[in-house]
Amino acid sequence: MKNKKTFIAVIVFVVVVAALGGVYYFTRPGTEEGKKQVNITVVNKAGEETTYEVSTEAEYLLGVMEDAEEQGLSFEGDDGDFGMMINTVNGEKAVYADDGAYWGFSVNGEYCEFGVSEQPAVDGDEFEIKYTIDK
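RE: above sequence
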């Protein structure tokens, strides 16, 4: 009797995991292959803006940012469970624990729904990376 309950529990677990995998597969962000023009505007703590016009084949924001390094964009971050967490842009570090500061990411005027590793990049996108203080 105990083996039958264990078997049923394992089957239910496998079905749930498969269902969640299916939901992710059909709702994950879509990407666009091929050459695209994307702009990244960095707004530092002082409010000064620097814009990078990037011609790229990258499908995600992280790849676009890496391509923008050729134009002088620099960034650092830590790899985590949800991809790279950016903490430094163009030499300016945002430390949330110190003053509530973080780098906020938006695309076409809306906050990004995904981290830089999973945020799709589409031709014509306007990304903004802004030093933000959470008050």
